[in-house]
Each structure stands twice: as C-alpha cells, then as structure tokens.
Specification:
The chain is mainly α and about 220 residues long. It has a domain at about 70-215: Tetracycline Repressor, domain 2 (Orthogonal Bundle). The chain is about 75% helix and about 0% strand. Helix 1 crosses helix 4, helix 5 packs parallel to helix 9 and helix 8 packs across helix 9. The longest helix is centred in the first third of the chain and has 26 residues, at about 15-40.
Length: about 220
C-alpha cells in the first residue's frame, strides 16, 4: 500500500496580510507627516517605521504626495467613523451634545498626530484636503446629527437657542483643540504645562460647561 504524498502548496499571500501591511504604512506615514510635514517626511523613514520596503510603499500608494493624501484621508476617516459610533440621533439632546464635546476633547487629547497633521494641512491652506471629497462627504452625517440634537433640544425647551450646526461644531472644536495646537506657547505664557492631567481634566469640564451653558441659559426676551 502506497501513501500518496501531496506537494506542499505555495502559500498565497493573505488579503489580511496585505491589509495589515497597508495599515502599518499608513500609521507610520501619518506620524511622519504629522511630525515633519509633507516636505520634511522621508519615504525611507516611513519604510523603516512600517517594516515595509520602499518598493512596496510605492506599489500600494504611488508617490509621496499620493501617500500623504492617503494618510490625510485615513486621518479624517478615523475620527468620522468613531463619531458615527456615538449614535447621536438616538440620544436625548443634552446627553448627545455633552457626549460629542467629551468625545471630541478625548479624541484630540489622545491622538496628537491628528492635531499635528491637521495643523500642517492648514499651514498648506488645505490644499490636499480640498482634493478629498470624503472630507466634506463624511462630515455631512455629523452636521445632520448636530442639527437634529439642536432642533429637538429647542423644541423640547431644553435648549434656549438654535445655532447653525457648523457653527456649533467649530465652537466645540475650538474649545477642544486650541490648548493642544498652542500648548507650548500657552504653557510658556502661564508658566504651567497645559498637558498635565489635572489641567486637562479641568479644561474638559470647562469645555462641556461652556457649550451646555450657552445652549441652556435663559435668553432675554427684550
């Protein structure tokens, strides 16, 4: 009786392996672009950080600009996806706005690369962000969710004012990002580290209080 031997099959590359490599490249690229900007970041550094050879980076993304666009798109996609998970339209108006402020504060605090790469893109006058339709497309659901919260809050009497949802989000973002984007100069001005956990906790509570007080404070009828 003979035993039939099967030839060892050549291991085909798994899709998950390619996705994992692409993810490592994007993460390394985002960090490099956040720290050095588009002009200062180097492909060979991204290659070493991601443990992917340079040829693979070019095969997946093309040139350096294309990699930057992909990293920028991924940066926006990350925060928009997590905002969707908040499921704001199912929450009561006060809870929804409060949760959005807290989430925005926490996300920016915990993702310094996001703050840096968006700051760098603003220094470039949003040149590349304007090339990405998803930047505005993925923001629309957030704007609609904020509009829903504000409209429901006003109708129920919980909120005393309605404000354009884009204005509301810019206010929230301003309260949650200024101390990060200008941390070093503000720390020098006030002679304390604005990155301290205690200060950040106070700032978080203050941001929530400012937004909620603005929306719920009685308005003069005069």
């Amino acid at each position: 009786m003979t035993t039939q031997k099967t030839k060892p099959s050549r291991r085909a590359p798994h899709k998950r392996d390619a996705e994992a490599t692409r993810r490592r490249i994007l993460d390394a690229a985002r960090h490099a672009f956040a720290e050095h900007g588009l002009s200062g970041a180097r492909i060979d550094q991204i290659s070493r950080a991601s443990e992917a050879n340079v040829q693979m980076i070019y095969r997946y993304f093309g040139g350096k600009e294309e990699l930057y666009l992909a990293a920028l798109e991924d940066t926006y996609a990350g925060i928009r996806a997590m905002e969707q998970q908040l499921d704001l339209t199912t929450l009561l108006p006060e809870e929804g706005i409060r949760r959005l402020v807290e989430f925005t504060f926490d996300y920016l605090r915990d993702n310094p690369d996001f703050v840096a790469i968006i700051r760098n893109e603003n220094m470039a006058c949003g040149r590349f962000a304007r090339k990405l339709p998803m930047v505005s497309d993925t923001t629309l659901p957030l704007v609609e969710a904020i509009d829903d919260l504000l409209a429901r809050g006003l109708k129920s009497g919980v909120f005393k004012i309605y404000i354009d949802p884009a204005q509301m989000y810019v206010t929230i973002l301003s309260l949650c990002i200024t101390h990060l984007a200008q941390r070093h100069t503000l720390s020098a001005m006030f002679q304390r580290d604005l990155g301290e956990a205690e200060w950040l906790a106070q700032r978080r509570a203050h941001a929530v209080d400012v937004v909620m007080t603005y929306l719920t404070a009685p308005r003069s009828t005069a």
